[in-house]
Amino acid sequence: MATETLTLGKALNAGLRKALENDPKVVIMGEDVGKLGGVFRITDGLQKDFGDQRVIDTPLAESGIIGTAVGLAIRGFRPVCEIQFDGFVYPAYDQIVSQVAKMHYRSQGKVRIPMVIRIPYGGGIGAVEHHSESPEAYFSHTAGLKVVTCANPQDGYSMIQQAIASDDPIVFLEPKRRYWEKGPVELDAPLGEAYPLHAARVARPGTDATVLAYGPMVRTALDAATAAAEDGRELEVVDLRTLSPLDLTAAYESVKRTGRCVVVHEAPGNLGLGSEIAARITEECFYSLESPVLRVTGFDTPYPAARVEEEYLPDLDRVLDAVDRTFGW
């Protein structure tokens, strides 16, 4: 199989291109996704090659984008909506929670909403207010939605295609700070052979403690594992990948072997995904745990100004400190 080295952004672009090629019912819509190619250039070149009826520049109206996509999905299209920045999704929140998430249930299973809502999320790019958020808990808590997040170019390429092919509405979270990180991508691998969309995966094997992360924090966890290895401690890193439904099979297996667990995410800790994950790990792995499940998260404040953003975001030192604390019990 041909393997190319691509950035996450380019891999997502290639995945969207493949989806457009494979299914004429796939349409992309959002603010500046056409001529500009998106503010992060994820849709670069797609309108030029597929036309403005399939890659559509919309007005600056997130509620209108999602509402229009609901109608298209009901009529048999597969709309892919881009929310330009995570903080812009809130005007569309009513549409997503009241319409997108409920239509299948409201119709007793007769109506499907095969649509994808792409959201660049998280901090780390020095953006201004409303341009760095971690809204994953809102959507993961909403019954009727599926929520996934990629962490590397290969997953970006395959997961976006799998999400578009799904008959369920999917919130697709893209870690914007990782758009420029490179990795190998198998561009001609059959989609049916790709790793399952709603499944976690061990990103680095280890024996001493388990670190669970997703999206932008997977790289941070891997960096922490590399640093820990220099001191003779082997951390196992599990990339959760799917937030709703949560797949914790790999996490359970890992924690039962290591006896220690640290959950890492950028979003605030209060009622974050880490709380649910910690509760489930404790229930399932209670007799294997050597210490409580610890969380490393953003603080319970709005995302700060860019100059102090790095003080807010979990980093390698905070992850390693939490790992050290699990060995103190």
Shape: globular
Structural class: alpha/beta
Q: N-to-C SSE series?
A: EHEHEHEHHEHEHEEEEHEEHEHEHH
- The radius of gyration is 19 Å
- Intertermini distance: 48 Å
Q: Mean pLDDT across all residues, rounded?
A: 97
Largest sheet: 7 strands, mixed
How large a portion of the residues is in β-strands, by DSSP E?
15-25%
Helicity range of the residues? 25-40%
Strand order of the largest sheet: 3-2-4-5-7-6-12
- Low-confidence stretches are none
Number of helices: 12
The number of strands is: 14
Describe this structure in words.
With 329 residues, the chain is of the alpha/beta class. 35% of the residues lie in helices and 21% in strands. A 7-stranded mixed beta sheet has the order 3-2-4-5-7-6-12, sandwiched between helices. The chain has a 5-stranded mixed beta sheet with strand order 9-11-10-13-14, with helices on both faces. Strands 1-8 form a two-stranded antiparallel ribbon. Strand 2, helix 2 (46-50) and strand 3 form a beta-alpha-beta unit. Helix 1 runs parallel beside helix 7 (153-165) and helix 8 (217-229) packs across helix 12 (316-326). The longest helix has 15 residues, at 8-22. It is globular. 51% of the residues are buried. The mean pLDDT is 97.
